[in-house]
Amino acid sequence: MRLLREGRLEVAGRLVEATNMTLYCSVTLGGQSAACVYKPVRGERPLWDFPDGTLAAREVAAFEVSKATGWQIVPPTVYRDGPFGPGMCQLWIDADQSVDLMDLVRSRHPGLRRMAVYDAVVNNADRKGGHLLPMPDGNVYGVDHGVCFSAEDKLRTVLWQWRGRPLQREAVGVLAALERDLESGSLGRRLRELLTLAEVEATWMRVRRLLDTGVHPYPSEDWPAIPWPPI
Ligand SMILES: Nc1ncnc2c1ncn2[C@@H]1O[C@H](COP(=O)(O)OP(=O)(O)O)[C@@H](O)[C@H]1O
Ligand SMILES: [Mg+2]
After folding, report:
1. Cβ distance 58 to 195 under 8 Å?
2. Per the domain annotation, does 227 fall within a domain?
3. Measuring CA to CA, which residue among 97, 98, 81, 99 is closest to residue 89?
4. How many domains does one find in the chain?
5. What's the whole-model pTM score?
C-alpha cells in the first residue's frame, strides 16, 4: 500500500482497449518496484448515469469493501496524485492467460460465487468477463469498479448462475460483519470520504436486503442485467 501511495509513478503505456484513460505504469520506492494501473480523474469519460470525476474514488471504495470482506477480490488500490493529476492507482495483477474467460464465467467457481455477493453489495453496473483476472493459485481478482455504488439499483453482471440460491453461511457471516462496519466502523467512515452519504446508506441497505432475503439476487426486469459486450 505504501509503495502504491508514495512511490514514484512513471507511465509506460496506455491500455488501448480501455474506455477511460487507463495507463500502465511502474511505481518505485526505496529500491522496491511494482507494475500498476493509473486512471487519472482527468481521463474519465463522462457517463450519463454517474457524476463526472467520481470514478476513481468509486474504484478505491470498491477496494475498501473488498478489504473489509477479506475476500481478496479487488487488487490493492489507492487514491493519489500522478503525472496527469489525481486518480486511482491499482497494483497490476499478472493473470493466468491460459484460462478461457467464457468457461470461467459460466463455471461454479467458489471465488465467483463470493464475487457475485460482493457485486450485489457494491451495486456493480459492469461485471464483464474481461474484468476477471484468474490467478495461477485459483484466486480470481476483479477489476474496473468505476461504475459501482450508485444509490439506484444497477446490478449488471455475467455472474447470475446463483440467482435465487441461498447465500452460503460464510457469506452471511461476512455480510453481517459488513453491516456493522458500515454502520459504526472504519468502513463507514472511509466510504463517507469517497462517496456521497446517500450512496453509503444505499450500500448499507443492499447489505441489509441480502441478509433479509438470504438469497443471491435475481436479475432485474427494469434495466439490462447483463453488460454489453459480456466479455
Ligand atoms: N490491476 C490490473 N491488473 C491487471 N490487468 C488490469 C488491471 N486493471 C485493468 N486491467 C486490464 O486492463 C483492461 C482495461 O482496464 P479497465 O479497468 O477495464 O479500464 P476502463 O475503466 O477504461 O474500462 C481490463 O479489462 C484488464 O484486462
Ligand atoms: Mg473496462
Report:
1. yes
2. no
3. 81
4. 1
5. 0.97
From CA 51, how far away is CA 175, in angstroms rounded?
28
> What's the rounded Cα separation, in Å, for the pair 55 and 103?
29
223 within a domain of the structure (yes/no):
no
Residue 80 pLDDT level (bands cut at 50, 70, 90): very high
Of 166, 179, 175, 158, the closest CA to residue 225 belongs to 158
Q: Which atom of ligand 1 is nearest to the CA of 95?
A: 4
Report if residue 228 sits inside a domain.
no
Establish if 8 belongs to a structural domain. yes
Q: For ligand 1, what atom is nearest to the CA of residue 91? A: 1
| pLDDT tens, position by position, 174-200 | 999 999 999 999 999 999 999 999 999
Boundaries of domain holding 22: 2-213
Query: Which residue has a Cα nearest atom 6 of ligand 1?
Result: 92
Residue 203 in grid coordinates: 450500500
Host H or E run for residue 68: helix 55-69
Q: Is the CB of 19 under 6 A from ligand 1?
A: yes
CATH of the domain at 80: 1.10.510
DSSP E strand stretches across the chain: 8-14, 23-29, 32-40, 77-80, 87-91, 132-134, 140-142
Mean pLDDT (whole number) for 99-109:
95
